[in-house]
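In keeping with the milestone schedule agreed at the kick-off meeting, the structural modelling team has produced records for the first pair of proteins. Each record is given below as a sequence line and a structure-token line. The laboratory manager (R.T.) confirmed that both were archived under the project's standard naming scheme.
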Amino acid sequence: MWGNKLWGLGTGTPMLEDVDEGGIRPWHLVKPSEEPEPPRPRRGSLRGGERERAKAIPEIYLTRLLSMKGTLQKFVDDLFQVILSTSRPVPLAVKYFFDLLDEQAQQHGISDQDTIHIWKTNSLPLRFWINIIKNPQFVFDVQTSDNMDAVLLVIAQTFMDACTLADHKLGRVSRLGWIQQEGDGGMGGMGWG
């Protein structure tokens, strides 16, 4: 025992003495705050304690993020290849639906190509594919963790950004900017943008 730290037998997990109860509590990398925080409504994918740890040791999480990026890159590339592939004919239902949108635009005198593009983008990629990407449990018998939800949100956001006509300015405050700036550098940080 050194100071108020103990090392559990056979483990590499630092322990803190619980003076009040006379027991030992495990903690990971960062000592949790002394005062318990009141429960807050859940925001984002990180809980209160996880958010503290994420702020305390960003290098560890950045390393984990980059290794996760390397693991998932092939799967994400394959997903986008399947969704955006032109090697197979467009499904008839999609072709007929897009033809209907073109007819409606013509019938109502809408000649702005951006408007027609937005109609098509909002219907198939944003309403269909984004919903499946963010909620794989709708199609597959899987459960997703908070971490997986965060990864799927980044992939879905990248796909949404790819479907818009606007130029995207990335910075520290943009949703994907921090990942791309902290990653490999510049626009290629996650490789998904």
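The second protein of the pair:
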Amino acid sequence: HPTVAYMKPVTHRVPL
């Protein structure tokens, strides 16, 4: 989810 982009801008595709 793009919501985790704040934490992983490089991996905004994480299944979190």
